[in-house]
Each structure stands twice: as structure tokens, then as C-alpha cells.
Amino acid sequence: MKTLDKAILLIPSNKLDWKPCDDTMKAADLGIHVYRSSLVYMAGTLKGEFTDADYSIIPFDSKVVKSPSEITEYGEKVKSYIRENLSKLTEADLDKKVTYSCWGGFKLGELASLATIPEETIHHRGQLCVYLRMLGIKPPFIYETE
């Protein structure tokens, strides 16, 4: 997620609401979506269910975002939450199903639920990099070199 953070921080504050067409997410919403989804998948995997009330585990009001750094600060909290809780899962836990009540009762196996975190990150990071190019901004190098 380091490259995602770098890409988010490249979004000019005055372009956070920008989107290339009507049926896509705004630039800011892409980053928020990745972190919020990561929270959902991690917390759901831990509990076996994720409800709308569980968003309060790490509160974030996306309607008042004024800068890209606010998004990455939220992302740091989500990443810390994932790091702190990943070791709590057992192999037996990964055979269970997770119910996402927040999404109408959608169910997913716990291992698949965890696998969705990097899948969502990669998918939307690429989308955000296209947005940056459309705004005339060179996206960050995607491979970690540090």
C-alpha cells in the first residue's frame, strides 16, 4: 500500500472531487475505498461478520476530506489495525465464512476475504494512476525500491 499512499498524495487538493466520467469514483474516493474495504475485510474476517456499525472501528468522515494527507492518515490507521490483528487468526479460522451484512448479506470464505485486501489495493491503485495521468501527473513507480 506504500505506492497507493504515494499516488494519493500526488492528487492536488483542488482535484480530490475530480473524476473522468459520471459513473466512476472521485479521485479521493478511490483511496478512501481501498482503505475502507481493507478495514471491512479484516474486521469481517476477525468477527465472521461485518455490519454497518463496524465502520466505527476506525471512524472516518469522507465528506469532509480537504487534503490527500487526510486519506493517507486514515490509511495508516487501517494498516496498523490489519498488522495488529492478522496474527490473531488461526488456520481453522480461515475455513469459516464471513457474512458482510453491510453489503446485503454477501458471504465470502475468510481466506478469500483476506485475499481481497491486496486485490482491491492493486486494482484501485492502477485506476488512480490512470486518473493521475489524465490530470497530467506522473504516477509513482509501482515497485517498492526502498
CATH topology: Four Helix Bundle (Hemerythrin (Met), subunit A)
How many structural domains can be distinguished in the coordinates? 1
Largest sheet: 3 strands, mixed
CATH arch. level architecture: Up-down Bundle
CATH homology-level superfamily? dinb family like domain
Provide a brief overview of the structure.
With 146 residues, the chain is mostly helical. 50% of the residues lie in helices and 7% in strands.
Structure description:
There is one protein chain. This protein is 50% helix and 7% strand. It has 146 residues and is mainly alpha-helical. It has one domain (2-19, 26-134): dinb family like domain (Four Helix Bundle (Hemerythrin (Met), subunit A)), CATH 1.20.120.450. It has a three-stranded mixed β-sheet. Strand 2 (97-100) and strand 3 form a beta hairpin. The protein is globular and about 50 Å long. The chain starts with a helix and ends in a 12-residue tail after the last helix. The mean pLDDT is 91.
Per-chain topology:
Blueprint: H1 2-9, H2 27-47, E1 49-50, H3 68-86, E2 97-100, E3 106-109, H4 110-134
Parallel strand pairs: 1-2
Antiparallel strand pairs: 2-3
Helix pairs in contact: 1-4, 2-3, 2-4
